[in-house]
Amino acid sequence: MTFAPFTDTAVEAKYQSLPEPLRLPMLRLRQTILDVAAASLEIGPLAETLKWDEPAWLPKRARTGTTIRANALKGSATHYALYVHCQTSLIETYRRHYPEQFSYDGNRALIFSIGLEPPAAPLEHCIALALTYHRWAKLMPAQAPR
User: Fold this and answer.
1) 65, part of any domain
2) Are 137 and 88 in contact (CB under 8 A)?
3) Most buried in the list 63, 73, 94, 138, measured by CB within 10 Å?
């Protein structure tokens, strides 16, 4: 897998500071996020920055999606997470679609282990749902994306 160059030196420094076992899985997750956005006209370009000292991505186009963040799971050298805003319905939506494919942390994160590659299609779908959240979240539940 080829990784996109960093556009923010603080984000790049954060990745360089990750413990070695977590760096490659986190780089893969970053690339997946960037690839999902690049493949979708609905999402458009992303802003990549640090929020709460964690790598974060948000569509540059207003009212498209919510910020997603990624980081090593606090206190763990073997687990990392994809975080979403805890006051959204995203984790509930993820659980409805993928009850067995992911481990969850309350209403705020998908948890991954460095030894197990996350399932590609479900992960890409979850990322796309977050990055388009404001476009579908106010729809009636029956109209929300499947």
Assistant:
1) yes
2) yes
3) 94
- How confident is the model over 104-118, as pLDDT tens digits? 999 999 999 999 999
Cα distance between residue 22 and residue 74, in whole Å:
12
CATH of the domain at 13: 3.90.1150
DSSP letters of 91-114? HHHHHHH-TTT-EEETTTEEEEET
- Give the residue numbers spanning the domain of 39: 9-143
**Cα angle at 135 between 141 and 93, to 5 degrees?**
40
Q: How far apart are CA 76 and CA 144, in angstroms?
A: 35
Q: What share of the chain is helix, strand, coil (3-state, %, to 5)?
A: 40, 20, 40
How many domains does the structure of the chain reveal?
1
Contact present, 131 and 37 (Cβ < 8 Å):
yes
